[in-house]
Amino acid sequence: MHFRTQIKNAVMVNEGRCFLGTLVIDDDRIEEIIEGSGDPLVPVDEVIDASGCYLLPGLIDDHVHFRDPGLTHKGDFFSESKAAAAGGVTTVFDMPNCIPQTTTMRDFEEKWRIASEKSVVNFGFLFGATAGNAYELAKLNSRKVAAVKLFMGSSTGNMLVDNERTLRAIFECSRLPIMTHCEDSAIIAENLRRLQATEGADPAVCHHTEVRSEEACYQSTALAVKLARETGARLHVAHLSTARELDLFTPGDSQITAEACVGHLWFTADDYARLGSRIKVNPSIKTEADRAALRAALSDGRIFTIGTDHAPHALREKTGGCARAASGMPIVQFSLVSMLELVDKGVLTLERLVQLMCHNPAELFSVENRGYLREGYKADLVLVRPHVPWTLTPNRIQSACNWSPLEGHTFHWRVERTFCNGFPIYNRGHITDEMFRGQPVCFNR
């Protein structure tokens, strides 16, 4: 028996347009979209009056670390998917640097099983490239695996690949998009050694930008772009953090694209004085000029997607400086409202936000029937309301780590409701049914 829901009087934002209308959900699909006034063709079971709200496709976050398996003291697929749902994110792509690393199909299938049992939103996974599995990449199931993740710079998880011959083999063998973490490990090691000579074994976190420097990012990203050009691989560079790297990307290039993450769009190195290691991430938060360049690139086409690099840690793991404090921040629950604040500031339009956080991730990874408000597509939706100030306090946080670098900030947009596969998983501050489970994403390749 079908359950039909009508969302009326919402301003829909989709494919470069904003328009007032009605959307009808039939079970897990969008059945009908009516512009302007008008009634559904078939009577509905529930009517939601969304007057004053904007209706967007559910966000696709192409870059999260939900810590399952092996690191679940920080968070797991249940807690972090609830945070995603509360933030209007209905699909997440999880990274492979967990324990064990997702670098074999056996471990990939086990991670799939865990998410199927725990996740309240839809999910997909990246397969980790290593120095030893390059020739296995050509065998990956393109309908099931989102992309290949390649750590070209040292980060958490000990998955570094920095030998150019091995890197070339990975670029040549992968039939799937390659998402790279680009930082030059040799430059980072030398920067840290030089700094420790004057500042001690664990330099203050304000020096993190010097350790994980612009040069470390640029040299690695330039190498990735070079390899992609020479091999024809589909490259997506994760979490750009510098203005200089942006010069390597061309608007409209369908082969080589870049992601910006919310942390690099929101914070600058000046914020270390206020927030300390809470904003310690890899690659590091850079200068105000870098942030301004990244923000400008959201609209000029050099940035193709916005992700979060959501990475929860227990607060005790965030103590220390450049060498000791863990890198990563939990932010998936507040990515949409943070970006909506930038819409209010004129950094980008609401239509462009939807392009970067919904449509483009769907196109990049060939996601089947998600990422748009289209009849016949999965009913992954988020209703947001403007002009409702609220301040982020710990009691609002769904992530298991129970902290955020955004605590104390007053936002002016609120996520009202999130629908995942037509189910109202989040409603005005509450996860509605913790037994609901999202679906694995299919890729239309």
What does this structure look like?
The chain is an alpha/beta fold. It has 2 domains: 4-56 and 377-431, Urease, subunit C, domain 1 (Roll), CATH 2.30.40; 59-364, TIM Barrel, CATH 3.20.20.140. The protein is 27% helix and 24% strand. The radius of gyration is 21 Å and the shape is globular. The two termini are 32 Å apart.
Could you give the order of the helices and strands?
EEEEEEHEHEEHEHHHEHEHHHEHHEEEE
Count of DSSP H/I helices: 12
What does the largest sheet look like? 9 strands, mixed
How would you classify the quaternary structure? Answer: single chain
The proportion of residues in beta strands is: 15-25%
> How far do the termini sit from each other?
32 Å
**C-alpha geometry:** globular
- Give me the CATH superfamily of the largest domain: Metal-dependent hydrolases
- Tell me the structural class: alpha/beta
Task: Enumerate the spans where pLDDT stays under 50 for 5 or more consecutive residues.
Answer: none
Could you give the topology of this structure?
Blueprint: E1 4-14, E2 17-26, E3 29-35, E4 46-49, E5 54-57, E6 59-64, H1 77-86, E7 89-94, H2 105-118, E8 122-128, E9 147-151, H3 164-173, E10 178-181, H4 185-199, H5 208-211, H6 214-231, E11 235-237, H7 243-246, E12 256-261, H8 262-266, H9 272-275, H10 288-300, E13 305-307, H11 335-344, H12 350-364, E14 381-391, E15 410-420, E16 423-427, E17 430-431
Parallel strand pairs: 1-4, 1-5, 6-7, 7-8, 8-9, 9-10, 10-11, 11-12, 12-13
Antiparallel strand pairs: 1-2, 2-3, 5-14, 14-15, 15-16, 16-17
